[in-house]
Amino acid sequence: MGRSAKFSNSLLGQVRAYYGLRQHELAALLGVADSLVGHIEAGRRALTLEVSERLAPFTQQMAEDTVPLPATPPPGPFDPGPLEARRAACLHEAANLRWAVRGLPGQASIAARWARALPGLRATLPPPIAAEETPATPEAVRLRYAHAWLALRLLALPPEELARWHLADIRAAALEAEAAALAGLLTGQGSVPK
């Protein structure tokens, strides 16, 4: 079996590229040895009259071709199975992404509430006792605890959590858009999406 060399700029290379043929396939169609096609294509042998005559119908069609390559798939019936499977996979993956970050909107809201409330809460508390002092009363212990606890409150989502939320949201939206496009394509074919 002949090698499937890269398409060259030779006439045989152009014919192979145009028709999507391997060297051995073109050789079989022309009724010549695989090696001859390889040598002619590489420029080591000249194109013979016999090969030129057998090549003529291929090159004539190439010269007459005015049909551009399609930019989109051609219309017509197709097997909806793979598209329906991909649509279901997109929706499933989008749902998983949204589930994985489901708690982050609530956490962000709570952090925003603390950011708004904290200045007022701190203003109502007496100042804490110095860190080196030992609290003398239960109220002093409570105040030290309250100040320490308020200092640990998140006032915004951590940057890595915010990035994770954005990435999941973008990926889920892209998957949902792909699923919607597939649903439109399937509906246009008469298939009803599930």
Automatic annotation (TrEMBL):
Transmembrane intervals: none
Residue span, HTH cro/C1-type domain: 20-56
Source organism, top-level taxon: Bacteria
InterPro entries: Cro/C1-type_HTH, Lambda_DNA-bd_dom_sf
Name of the protein in its database record: HTH cro/C1-type domain-containing protein
Native source organism of the sequence: Hymenobacter glaciei
